[in-house]
Amino acid sequence: MKPIKHNNQNDYNIELKKNVNRNYTFTFLQTIDLTRGIWMIYLATKGMSLTQLGLLEMIFHITSFSMEVPTGAVADLYGRRTSRILGRALSVLSVVILLFADSFLWFAISFIIVALSYNMESGAGDALVYDSMKSIGIENEYMRVGGNKEMVFQIANVFAFLLGGYLATQSYQWAFGVTIVMGLVSFLYAFKFVEPKLGRVTERGHRGQNFVYQLKESYAILKGHKRLGFLILFSQFVMSFTTTIFFYLQNYMKADGFNEAFIGGVYAVSSLAGAILATQVYKIEAVIKEKGILILMPIITAASTWGIALSQFHYAFYIPISLAEGMIFVALGDYINKVIPSENRATILSMASMIFSFFMITLFPLIGWLGDRYSLQGAFVFMAILGSFLTLINTIVISSRKVK
């Protein structure tokens, strides 16, 4: 799959600018995953315990952890567009397997494949858009564009959660079928992107040498830039924390007597609120700055986790958690992209996703085991204690100006 050729530089720049709007459409199509808010419940109906669900997610993240950086390097070396297309194909295959599988082994195979699909997209998508913008000199608008993308993502989530929750009350097969169709549509749409020349790595020898050099150079950049390393560690832990809550909350609400339609409605409301917030992130950031985001968002997350653990209205406390995560995702994504060299962007962003997977490998199965051994409420109490402790440390560190 080769980049589209253009007659002159002006045409090429126009196509690069179109990548931004194409990415909004692609994000919407990609996010119409009706299984995201119900897969934990679906697999529970297939006989999976909380511990087994934790193991499946651990398998996903072990795969993601081991393959993130190699797939990011592939995107830098052979094209972000190519990586994105392959990611969509693997995503569809994983949903097909999950629909027809009926054993832990096949569920695990599906999770391995979907992990690879995420790997192919994680560094490539953002790198493609940022370098498209940088090529035509509008990268300073990235936080606004990122906010718009987050808004589109959340609007698509509203639709996916509501429809997925409703269809699950009728038939899980319908929810999976619609997801497969939308996955195929997003796969075909991915061919419309134009590969930016900026950031493509110059050949330094045979492909194996290029690959190894890319990994070493990207690691050296990450190791030598303390602020970049901190921002990546901070953002990936918060997102792993909130992701764990998102998935186990499905079973928590189900056990409390709520059906899939209600659960989808809760997630839809949080996504709608997130869509409203996303377009205002750059304005909020201009007021509270990086330091305010780094201190306030973890406090909101930790306090809300206590609400999930102890309140009978636990579902309502997921909304502020989702908003805090969205704020971190948009703002810190802008900070991080500004300091990464274009030719290492996809690789380093994949390193960030690898760190996310490391946290998930540790946290997700632990919460599943605690839920089986004691209760999900007890597991959420543990998360609230952990979140509060880490938030206290984070506040002390940031306030002491060790991180600017």
Reconstruct the topology from this structure.
Layout: H1 9-31, H2 39-45, H3 50-78, H4 80-100, H5 104-122, H6 124-135, H7 142-170, H8 172-189, H9 207-224, H10 226-255, H11 260-278, H12 281-310, H13 318-339, H14 345-373, H15 376-399
Helix pairs in contact: 1-6, 1-7, 3-4, 3-5, 3-9, 3-14, 4-5, 4-6, 4-8, 6-14, 7-8, 7-11, 7-13, 9-14, 10-12, 10-13, 10-14, 10-15, 11-13, 12-13, 12-15, 14-15
Short structural summary:
It is built from 15 helices and no strands. About 80% of the residues lie in helices and about 0% in strands.
Describe it for me?
Pfam families: MFS_1. Keywords: Membrane, Transmembrane, Transmembrane helix, Transport. This is MFS transporter. InterPro entries: MFS (IPR011701), MFS_DHA3_Transporter (IPR053160), MFS_dom (IPR020846), MFS_trans_sf (IPR036259), Sugar_transporter_CS (IPR005829). It is a multi-pass membrane protein. The protein is an all-alpha fold and 404 residues long. The protein has a domain at 23-139 and 167-192 and 204-259 and 332-399. It contains 15 helices and no strands. It has helices spanning 9-31, 39-45, 50-78, 80-100, 104-122, 124-135, 142-170, 172-189, 207-224, 226-255, 260-278, 281-310, 318-339, 345-373, 376-399. The longest helix has 30 residues, at 226-255. The radius of gyration is 20 Å and the shape is globular. Residues 203-207 have low confidence and may be disordered.
